[in-house]
């Protein structure tokens, strides 16, 4: 994955931000909407696309497009940099392949200790009982 190639494929749209803020919100388009077409991306290999498709399934549209919004700041430029950073984090975490868990054998000393402890607890409980005459 090369971030420069992927960033060149991103599409941005500036939209008016919602919520309180008075005249600034009503006049300035500071919210940034990022769209990334996963299916038609040239920067990702077929394997990477398949992996991202499965990992980001809930975030993608039916056309395999990832949409991210950012309206945290009053500056359009800052919002753009925030949304790019967020996008790269999502892609990087989506491309991580988890390590396969290898089952290990339980050591004999651990088994012996568990059985010894069970016998010890059993003896303690036996000693609490009323004597049988």
Structural class: alpha+beta
Q: Looking at the structure, what is the overall shape?
A: elongated
- Percent strand equals 5-15%
What's the overall average pLDDT, rounded?
Answer: 90
Strand order across the biggest sheet? 1-2-3
Secondary structure layout plus pairing:
Blueprint: H1 3-9, E1 11-15, H2 23-27, E2 31-37, H3 46-55, E3 65-70, H4 76-94, H5 108-128
Antiparallel strand pairs: 1-2, 2-3
Q: What would you say this structure looks like, in words?
A:
The chain has 5 helices and 3 strands; from the N terminus they run H-E-H-E-H-E-H-H. It has helices at 3-9, 23-27, 46-55, 76-94, 108-128; strands spanning 11-15, 31-37, 65-70. Strands 1-2-3 form a 3-stranded antiparallel beta sheet, covered by helices on one side. The longest helix is centred in the C-terminal third of the chain and has 21 residues, at 108-128. It is elongated. The model has no long low-confidence stretch (mean pLDDT 90).
What's this model, at a glance?
This protein is an alpha+beta fold and 133 residues long.
């Amino acid at each position: 994955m090369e971030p420069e190639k992927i960033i060149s494929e991103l599409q941005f749209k500036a939209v008016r931000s919602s919520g309180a803020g008075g005249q600034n919100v009503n006049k300035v388009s500071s919210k940034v909407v990022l769209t990334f077409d996963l299916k038609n991306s040239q920067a990702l290999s077929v394997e990477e696309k398949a992996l991202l498709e499965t990992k980001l399934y809930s975030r993608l549209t039916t056309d395999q497009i990832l949409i991210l919004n950012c309206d945290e700041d009053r500056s359009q430029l800052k919002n753009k940099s925030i949304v790019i950073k967020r996008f790269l984090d999502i892609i990087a975490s989506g491309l991580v392949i988890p390590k396969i868990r290898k089952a290990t054998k339980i050591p004999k000393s651990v088994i012996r200790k568990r059985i010894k402890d069970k016998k010890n607890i059993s003896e303690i409980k036996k000693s609490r009982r009323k004597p049988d005459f």
